[in-house]
UniProtKB/TrEMBL annotation:
Species per Swiss-Prot/TrEMBL record: Streptomyces salinarius
UniProt keywords, alphabetically: GTP-binding, Hydrolase, Nucleotide-binding
Membership in a protein family: Belongs to the GPN-loop GTPase family.
Pfam families: ATP_bind_1 (PF03029)
Domain of life where this protein originates: Bacteria
SUPFAM superfamilies per the UniProt record, alphabetical: P-loop containing nucleoside triphosphate hydrolases (SSF52540)
Protein name: GTP-binding protein
PANTHER family: ATP/GTP-BINDING PROTEIN-RELATED (PTHR42708), GLIDING MOTILITY PROTEIN MGLA (PTHR42708:SF1)
Keyword Nucleotide-binding: yes
């Protein structure tokens, strides 16, 4: 398509424009295994229409992708999800949801670049997936909190037991959440921001 000099390219929608009071922006990544709720979390909490890269799952994924506990899931993120939330008038978080299927994990390194912190979403039906996820964050030096998504059919455990099962140090926050609810997802992000602030005060962040 050829554009004439008189043509105008539409800008962002009014509701998508960055608040004029914003003074600082922080990149946060939402990570976890397949089907733990990353796309749902970004969508529930974002104040702008989220960008998603979901594609329909096909027969080609059978035997390759582990969809245990997510048999009814028909689409999957193949690149990233993106959203934005203003924590205060001055502070804005840019949210990047990572793809969950292991064959797309090579994309994580790029998404981790410049991230100040991360949320690790956990499904108690598949705790073992979380070890690789947390290990990758630790290798990159990205601080994180752990949020246990409360699926209706997932077993519930005391937080102390989950901390032990995940071999999670005492200083790393772990909490329940329902990523379908905006308030719950926002609470997780606020927990992460408080954790990052505490690390900064200790000089652990550079």
């Amino acid at each position: 398509m050829d554009f004439k000099s008189s043509d105008t390219i539409p800008g962002p929608r009014t509701e998508d424009r960055l608040p004029h009071t914003a003074e600082a922006a922080v990149k946060i990544v939402i990570v976890g295994g397949f089907g733990v709720g990353k796309t749902t979390m970004v969508g529930s909490v974002s104040e702008i229409r989220p960008l998603t890269t979901e594609e329909t799952m096909t027969q080609a994924g059978i035997g390759v992708d582990d969809n245990y506990g997510s048999a009814s899931k028909t689409a999957t993120t193949v690149a990233m999800d993106f959203g934005r939330i203003s924590i205060t008038d001055e502070l804005v978080l840019y949210l990047f949801g990572t793809p969950g299927q292991e064959r797309f994990w090579f994309l994580w390194n790029g998404l981790f670049e410049g991230a100040l912190g991360a949320v690790v979403l956990v499904d108690t039906r598949r705790l073992e997936v979380s070890f690789d996820v947390m290990g990758r964050l630790e290798e990159r030096g990205v601080p994180f909190v752990v949020a246990v998504n409360t699926f209706p059919d997932a077993p519930r455990y005391p937080m102390a037991e989950l901390r032990t099962a995940l071999d999670l140090p005492e200083e790393i926050p772990i909490l329940d959440c329902d990523v379908r609810r905006r308030a719950s997802s926002r609470d997780v992000l606020m927990t992460l921001m408080r954790f990052l602030h505490a690390l900064a005060m200790k000089g652990a962040l550079t």
